Amino acid sequence: MQEEAGPPEPELRVALFTGNYNYIKDGVALTLNRLVSFLESRGVPVLVFAPVADKPAFASAGELVALPSMAIPTRPEYRIALGLSRAARQRLEAFRPTLLHIAVPDIAGYKALTWAERAHVPVVASYHTRYDTYLRFYGLGIFERLGQRYMRNFYNRVRRVYPPSESMAEIIRREGQSQNIEIWARGVDSDLFSPARRDMAWRRSLGIADDEVAVCYAGRLVKEKNTAVFTRVMNALTARGLKVRPLVIGDGPEMATMRDSLKNGVFAGFLHGEALAGAYASADIFFFPSESETFGNVTLEAMASGLPAVNAIASGSNSLVVEGVTGHLVSARDEEGLAARLEMLARDEGMRRRMGEAARGRAMGYSWDSILSGLLASYREVLREARDDR
Predict the structure, then answer these.
(1) pLDDT tens-place string over residues 317-347
(2) In angstroms, what CA-CA distances link 314 with 53, 88, 171, 272?
(3) Where are the domains of the chain?
(4) Superfamily holding 195-363
(5) Is the CATH code 3.30.479.10 the one for domain 14-187+368-385?
(6) Long-range own/partner contacts, residues 134-139 (CB < 8 A, 24 or more apart)
(7) pTM higher than 0.90 for the full model?
(8) Confidence category of residue 149, pLDDT binned at 50, 70, 90
């Protein structure tokens, strides 16, 4: 006897709201562009809503609808969306989304959430950044509790929250922001980021001697990444007479401060693609003292490149770095502890090699295709739940 077919799968049409999609080439923007490319390759229509700048940093995937925005006073390189213009709202309604994905709980994200609630469109949200903790780096720590209260209100109104790591998920649960959580990890291109790209000639061109240990930082040069901690710890190691060279990959508002205060530092600037992969592989240790990461794309890239990682204890790093196996995890407030772990690695080439090999092996488990396929499956499950709830 033939079983009756169930109801047809709901159509998936995704409207994605984010605070940065193409005007700065940061980890969030690159991840979301990769997601849009993946969805479109699977035949899923996607429409992106985000602030724009006069000159994009890179060519973005998919169709982008500009949102009204202004530069953030304390971080003018970033923009904050001010809501939905009439034209953006009309484009959203004409697109007829069946799912909203909100990547940033800003004004536009809140407006999109309220629109979706009225239109009975299910909403999911990805969790990329500890925005509440950023306040303390800019003298606004008094507002941190208010920010946490807002985020509890926001994330408890969506059907899924997608943090990139289990350690971040634990924080979200503990702070009461949501219990409807699924992990959306990040992937890495392990062919691009590989120890095979090590280039001693490139190191020499920057003035790094063959017998010097290059300690690498990669990412935006901003206060909330604890660039000051990186500088103080590396200066302490240099003062001890160790043959270490700080290798800074990236750019940002703290560049001038770091150039002035970091002794013996080498600044490679902003790199991407094969140049970035070659820089990682040409270093010897990765040092990342940021506490604000929810995942840590740069840590995963460094690990895939065969570097042991010394990281601050943080929700993202805790899920990537295996203490004593692929590197070390130390409180960012314990600068002596960070220096001690770095000194130990700097003095022991065999330890660096063993931990680097273990880091590479761990990074190989993060495949973009399987990670994005899992998110797509979650989208479809959310649509089925929403249909059954009606």
Answers:
(1) 888 999 999 999 999 999 999 999 999 999 9
(2) 31, 37, 11, 25
(3) 14-187+368-385, 195-363
(4) Glycogen Phosphorylase B; (3.40.50.2000)
(5) no
(6) 134/224, 134/292, 137/223, 137/224, 138/74, 138/75, 138/223
(7) no
(8) confident
